[in-house]
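Hello forum,

I keep getting stuck at the same step: I have a sequence, I want structure tokens, and every attempt I make locally crashes halfway through. Rather than fight my setup again tonight, could one of you with a working pipeline run this one for me? It's a single chain of 556 residues.
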Amino acid sequence: MKRVLGILLAFVGPVLAAAGIAGVLLIGSDDTVDSPATTLKLGDAKAVVSTPSLLAFTNTTMRLTAESSDGTVFLGQAHPIDARSYLATSSTYAVTKVDTSGLSGEVVKGDPKTALPDPTKQGFWTARATGTGKQTLMLELDGTPTEFVIMPVGKGGDLTVTSGIQVKNGFTLSLAALVVGVLALFAGLLLRRRRRAVAESGSENGPVAKATAAAGDEVDRATEVDAPATPSGTMGRVFTLGVISALVPALAGCGVVPTKVDAWKTSELTKPAMANQAEALAAMKDLDARSATSRAAIATSYDAKQWSAVRGGPLLATAVLGTQFDQLVKDHSVAKVSFTVHDAYLPAFSSYPMFAMVSGTETINREKPNEALQVITRSSVTSPWVLVGATTAQLKGLAAPAASGTPSTLTPADLKQTKAAVDGLTSQINTGKGSPALPKELGEYFAGLRTPTQGSATLKAEPWNPTKDLVSPDGSVQAVKTTTGQLVVVSYNLLVTQTAKAGYVFLDDPKNQYRTVTGQTGDLETVLNRYALIITMQLDKNGKPSVIGDSAYYVR
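Reply #2:
Ran it on my machine without issues. Output:
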């Protein structure tokens, strides 16, 4: 037994000691294994970025250190969809591997003329560091999709980058392995020397000594079974247990080494439009503030182009027309508008643009608040949220958003229900037939458009943006799952053609701002009116729709 233990300790000792020395040298007192510094000449590339497999680890922290040869360097961590949107078509250097020779990768070609927005002014980073000289960024890796971006700020320049992986308690375990290894080696040598000494002693005393030793062995064996252990035996077992107890945590060090996980597929990544209700509230407050600034500037300049910073889709078209109305009558008044968020509906997307719906109350010039549902969209991670749709909607009648963590993006079956409901709504508007049935006031509104005094009219409702996918963030339909089904907002381009009876005309009306701005002046037999029509529907779990809100605005 002692012979086997001696051989084992003599073998394990050097191995542990060597591993301990290597660990101390490689890991260092900061528990981090660093790659050699690599200098990357970017050329036309705007940034250094990670690839999915590079960060597909859990239970560790990556330490990035970088500096720019020409001044300031920026290091940032973000969701891959946000990072991809930020870099857009820019040329980048993608890091695919980090080993003992440093970082290596390949250039992903893009437009060399693309100028990226200042990274230090963007709010989508989950971690960041910037400055002159060496800058360090710690990336907590838990297996979830993430990406790092390293780039010079201002002037270009070469980047010198070092990547390191933290090994929890690695330095301590390395020291322990070194100490245990040395002790194990010493113990093994000691046991082997004692055995040689005993063997040599037995050979010198001849057969009598051997017989005596054999008898002694029998006594020893009897002692082991029947009598209390001797002090020397106790010390031997204590030493053995001590070695084993030291080996266990040293070997357990393997459990704190970073764990490799499957790299995520870029094509399968999704990201919620916003993280939570608090972010939706902040986005709406920012939109309110920017809208107020735009209104004040437009009221004096009548520069309707400024609306594009806060409006999009049909609401941009009607805002532009409203500014032309104001310019016609020299109206410089500025409305005070604010929106208080009640609930937010936040579907997930695989790329930008993205949309979100918010319900709440809108207050205009301290009048009685109106309950409404609004749709906001964002074209890229660096673009602000803009308002593209709004209708009345009773808050008590709105279904609650899907529970946090529940997929809120439409499935193919949901999408089929949505398109069927939109087709029925379109038929109802154009012909008065179909499903869903329209609320009384909305039905009477369409009936009035169809039957002008002393004439007739035709209604033609078409998707607001027919060149886009029908159901999409920048299309004519935005839809999101709720706790009871779906919430759907549909935007139409509604053209109403009014024709006077034979022998009659629509008289010129200088006070009719719409006819004046659209050039339909004089006595006319036919008048064209165009509206941005927005309707909100709810679908139950079976896809049955009901109209719960609507709005109509003049557009050119």
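The mean pLDDT is 82. If your local run keeps crashing, start a new thread with the error log.
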